[in-house]
Amino acid sequence: MTTPQNTPQATPQAGIFIEGNRAQHVLEYTLKADAPMADVKSALARARADVPAGIAQVLAVGPGLWARLARNHMPLGLTDFQPITGPKAHAPASQRDVLVWLHGPARDAVFDAAKAVDHALQGVAVRELDLPGFTYRDSRDMTGFIDGSANPKDVAARKVAALVPDGEAGAGGAFVLSQRYIHNLDAFNALSEAAQERVIGRTKADSIELAGDAQPADSHVSRTDLKIDGVGQKMYRRSMPYGTAGEHGLYFLAFACAQSRFEVVLNSMYGLTGDGITDHLMDFSQAVTGSYWFAPSEGDLEKALG
Ligand code: HEM
User: Fold this and answer.
1) pLDDT at residue 71, rounded to an integer
2) Sorting pLDDT into bands at 50, 70 and 90, what band is 55?
3) Ligand 1 mutation pick, 252, 259, 273, max ligand atoms within 8 A of CB
4) Which position among 97, 141, 147, 279 bears the catalytic label?
5) Is residue 143 in a domain?
6) Does the pLDDT at position 262 exceed 80?
7) Residue 8 pLDDT
8) Which domain holds residue 223?
9) Average pLDDT over residues 86-95
10) What distance in Å separates the CA atoms of residue 112 and residue 169, rounded to the nearest whole number?
11) Cβ neighbours of residue 100 closer than 8 Å, sequence gap 6 or more
């Protein structure tokens, strides 16, 4: 079997790359200040082991906790999320210690998995976010636009975008960004379909990228489809729609080979790059949490948890 060039060889957490599950659940925790590290390790190991077969799981930890668990595997550039204040929009920081992302075919089995994880962690950590989510229609965001169209197309390309390359500290692991966004769908839906398409930068029905002059400089696509020194700032997005009739939105979740990719794109969205333009989408959705995480390779996680 041939290996595509540059595809990392360390074994990543499989749950990052499994697609097609319609039920999801995200849990975020802060460690209890007095929790002994030995107890934290065994609770995390139990949380992983207690997820029933058939449910995909990803365990990621905040920079501070990973430094305590595996100082020698600290990936370059992993730091806490900082608040972002641009000319027109603000993204708060809520940096936490543990992120568990669960997904599976059915809501009931994902619920059982979330309950098992929570049970394993409750002695050492405080639950800060407990968010069920779902696939909305044919993988659309609640604005009605397909989310994920520009993701790298095959598993090899997704691994290159999402994983720390071989030879670097943390190889086979992924930098993770999560932000819970609350949508103002009444405001978005009040726009004509053509105006909505100019906010996103793609057509609504079939997700075709607007071309040439039809693509506004402040569309979401224009603000996020970036190259730095000729290198596309690709990431692998796995965001999750969530919510109720009253409050709903997108739990933005993405994996990348470097944290700088997230920083560059966020700065562009929030109007902090040279042109000072803010992503028009930020007029219709407000971030209320923000954390950076590291999802270590299977090997690094096993070593760290003992
Ligand atoms: C309210 C929150 C957000 C919503 C509703 C949203 C939705 C979308 C949609 C509908 C697309 C176009 C289809 C696609 O290519 O997937 C897209 C593209 C994209 N988004 Fe977002 N997004 C949000 C936040 C973010 C954030 C916080 C980031 C990164 C920090 C981000 C990064 C990207 C990237 C890299 C693309 C692909 C651009 C390209 O190469 O064409 N998005 N998003």
Assistant:
1) 85
2) very high
3) 252
4) 147
5) yes
6) yes
7) 64
8) 21-305
9) 98
10) 34
11) 26, 27, 29, 47, 57, 58, 59, 60, 114, 117
Whether 229 is catalytic: no
- Burial call 74-91: b when 16+ CB within 10 Å, e when fewer: ebeebeebeebebeebeb
Nearest protein Cα to ligand 1, atom 38: 225
Q: Which two tokens stand for residue 45?
A: 């190991």
Q: Are 283 and 219 in contact (CB under 8 A)?
A: no
Is residue 237 situated within a structural domain?
yes
Centroid of ligand 1 to alpha carbon of 240 (angstroms): 12
Q: How far is CA 126 from the centre of its chain?
A: 21
Instruction: With H, G, I as helix, E, B as strand and everything else as coil, classify residue 11.
Output: coil
Q: What percentage of the chain carries pLDDT values higher than 90?
A: 96
- What one-character DSSP code corresponds to residue 71? G
Average pLDDT over residues 243-271: 98
CA 183 to ligand 1: nearest atom: 1
Number of domain units in the chain: 1
Does the pLDDT of residue 47 top 90, yes or no? yes
Mean pLDDT of 2-15: 74
> What does DSSP say about strands 98-104 and 56-61: parallel, antiparallel, or unpaired?
antiparallel
pLDDT of residue 5: 52
Q: Quick check: 24 and 134 in contact, CB under 8 A? A: yes
Residue 293 lies in a domain: yes
Tokens 């077969």 correspond to: 53
**Domain-embedded: residue 5:** no
